Amino acid sequence: MSSVRPWRDIMRRECRQIMVGSVPVGGDAPITVQTMTNTPTSDAAATIDQIRRCEEAGADLIRVSCPDEDSTAAFREIARAAQVPLIADIHFHYKRALEAADAGAACLRINPGNIGSSDRVAEVVRAAKANGCAIRIGVNAGSLEKHLLEKYGEPCPDALVESALDHIKLLQDHDFHEYKVAVKASDVFLAVAAYQGLADTVDCPLHLGITEAGGLIGGTVKSAIGIGNLLWAGIGDTIRVSLSAEPEEEVRVGFEILKGLGLRTRGVRVVSCPSCARQGFDVIRTVSALEERLQHIKTPLSLSVLGCVVNGPGEARETDIGVTGGGNGKHMVYLSGVTDHHVQSAEMLDHIVTLVEQKAAEIEAQMTDAGNVTEARPANGLA
C-alpha cells in the first residue's frame, strides 16, 4: 500500500509571518497554542506559579490581563520570570498598553478603536515599535461596536469582519503591520463563518478561538468542532481553547486538537477503546491513570491500550507501544508494532509507564544525535 495519503493533507492558508517575542506566528511556522492566566496579575507570585504550570503543559504563548496600574507594575517581574513570551491583555485604557510594552510584553491584545483618538493609537504604536511588540486585534461578537450592531441588527459574520478591518486600518494608518487578528464568538457557526470571511480578506496571521465555550467537557467539544473545522480547512496560525477550567487544561486540549489533525506532535498520543464486556482489564481506569502519570512526557510517541484481541493487535501494530487484554489476567505487550512479551494485570500500569519513559528517552537520544529539534524542547523552541 502506498504511504501517500492525500486525504490527510491540510493545505494551510498562506499568510505573512510575525514574531511574538521569540515565537514565529503565521507563514510556515507551527500553529502555536496559548492560554491566559486567571490569577490577579498584581499578585506576581501567584501569576508566575500559574505560568509555570502552563509552560509545563506546553504553552507557547501566555496572555496576562492588565486591567490596572498595579497589574502593569507587576508585569515586569512576571515577564522576567516567564520562559515563554507574554501577551498583555488591554481593553480600554491606552496607558496600560504603554506600560505593558515597556514592562516586557511581547504582544499587546488591544482593539485600537476602543482606546480613543488617533493620537492615542499612535502612542501605542510607537511604544509597540520601540519595544518590539506585536499587536493582537481581538474582535468579539459579545462586544461589537454600537454602529455595527445598528447597521447589521445583530452580531453576524459580516459585522465581525468589518470590525476587524476597521481596527486593522487604524494600525495600518500608522504604518504598523506586526499584527494578528481574532474574530471570536461563542456560537460555533458564527465564529467559523467570520473566520472564513476574514481569511479571504486579509494576509495577516489569524488567532482562532471559540470564546466562552463552557466547561472542560462542553467547552472542549465546542472548541474542537469550531477550531478543528477551521484548522482542517487550513485556516489558523495560533489557537486558544477558552474553557471554564484551569489554564493548563486549555493548553492540553489545544494540543490534542492539533495532534488529532496531525498538525503538531507533543507527548503521548493514546489510542484506546471505549471498553466492553470483552475487556481483559479495566480499560477506562487504566487509561485515566496512564494519562495522569504520563503528563510529564513531552516527547512525541504513541501508545495503544485495547481491552481485547478483536481490534487490539491491529491498533497495537500502528503504535510505538501497545497492550491488548488477554485471559487470566495475562496481557500482550507490543513494542514497535511487534508482539514482545506478556504482563500480568497487577504489574501492567507501572510496566507501561516504565516502557513509555524508556521509549521517550530513546527517541530523545536519537533526535539529539541527529541534531533535530522536537516538541520536547522548551515551548518557545517550536518544531
Tell me what the structure shows:
The protein has about 375 residues and is of the alpha/beta class. The chain has 2 domains: about 15-260, Alpha-Beta Barrel (TIM Barrel); about 270-370, Sulfite Reductase Hemoprotein, domain 1 (2-Layer Sandwich), CATH 3.30.413. The chain is about 40% helix and about 20% strand. It is built from 12 helices and 15 strands. The strands form 3 sheets. It has an 8-stranded parallel β-sheet with strand order 8-7-6-5-4-3-10-9. A 5-stranded mixed β-sheet has the order 11-12-13-14-15. It has a two-stranded antiparallel ribbon with strand order 1-2. A hairpin with a 5-residue loop joins strand 13 and strand 14. Helix 5 (about 145-150) runs antiparallel to helix 6. The protein is elongated, with a radius of gyration of 23 Å. The model is unreliable at about 375-380 (pLDDT under 50).
Give a brief outline of the structure:
The chain is α/β, with parallel strands linked by helices.
**Backbone structural class:** alpha/beta
Q: Extract low-pLDDT stretches.
A: 376-381
Q: What does the average pLDDT come to?
A: 93
- String of helices and strands: EEEHEHEHEHEHHEHEHEHEHEHEEEH
For CATH, the homologous superfamily of the largest domain is named as: Dihydropteroate synthase-like
From the alpha-carbon coordinates, what is the Rg to the nearest angstrom?
A: 23 Å
* Percent helix: 40-55%
Shape: elongated
Q: How is the largest sheet built, in terms of strand order? A: 8-7-6-5-4-3-10-9
What is the second-level CATH architecture of the largest domain? Alpha-Beta Barrel
What is the fold-level CATH name, i.e. the topology of the largest domain? Answer: TIM Barrel
Number of strands: 15
Number of helices: 12
